[in-house]
Amino acid sequence: PLLVSKPNDGICENAIWSTNGTTVAGRSDGLGSALNRLHGPWGLFVDDNQVIYVADSKNHRIVKWEQDASSGQLVAGGKGSGNNTDQLNHPSDVVVDRDGSIYISDTENGRIQQWSSGAKSGKTIIKDISSPVGMSRDKQGLLYVSDWKKGEIKKWDVGATIGQLVASRLSGPRFMFIDQKKSIYIAEQRRDRIIKADDVISSQSSMLAGGSLGNGLNQLSSPYSVIVDELGTLYIADTNNHRIMRWVRGPQSGMV
To answer: What does each of the 256 residues of the chain score in pLDDT, given as a tens digit?
Structure first.
């Protein structure tokens, strides 16, 4: 984008975006199981070195792509669908910490797996989740997980076996974003909206975008993911409308 703003203060409201994207992982000519292809990619994580980790869901694996690489590297799973320690079953999201440990939302197995850097298998650190999808970690290392079927988000401290409920009575929560104040921005798929909740269990939440089904600039259709910049601007994966929406704080509608 063309930016007309001061450094580190987000993206200005009149930014101009390219109409064509650049492929950074996988290939545009079809899906597959080779390491230069993806099949059903869901969540991704970008580390400080611009390495991209992808939850390659239908290949039941996590792959990482170095910057400008033509092929990915297998870092977890990839041995078919299953619940063994070296297998995954439709992983949805991935988070990587600074020591290279990989945390995986192993959706169809109802668990969160941790793979140490270079490991050939993982270990279950959270289990008995109905349908884990999105994950996020805050600066203190707490792990937040959305449970799509139960309609809730819990957080786990390092080493904890019981999670703390921080958001409930949701309808199809997918991916989330945690800001520096620990506010939780949630893509609530079944209600076609983005909401914001505090990091405490409460019935109080505020709707920031969408809220009705459609393709108007004030509507969303099955949003899956959201990220937030330093100005509070939302960037939304508006899935069934096949677009990315940019929603500046305050207005009742966004822009494509």
So the answer is: 333 333 344 566 667 778 788 888 998 888 999 999 999 999 999 999 999 999 999 999 999 999 999 999 999 999 999 999 999 999 999 999 988 999 999 999 999 999 998 899 999 999 989 999 999 998 888 999 999 999 999 999 988 889 999 999 999 999 999 988 888 999 999 999 999 987 665 556 788 888 999 999 999 999 999 999 888 889 999 999 999 999 887 778 888 8
**Record: fold of 26-127:** Thrombin, subunit H (2.40.10)
Name the pTM for this structure. Answer: 0.89
CATH 1.20.200.10 fits 139-250, yes or no: no
Report CA torsion sign: 164, 167, 168, 170.
negative
**Could you tell me the strand order of the sheet in which 184-188 lies?**
173-178, 184-188, 193-197, 206-210
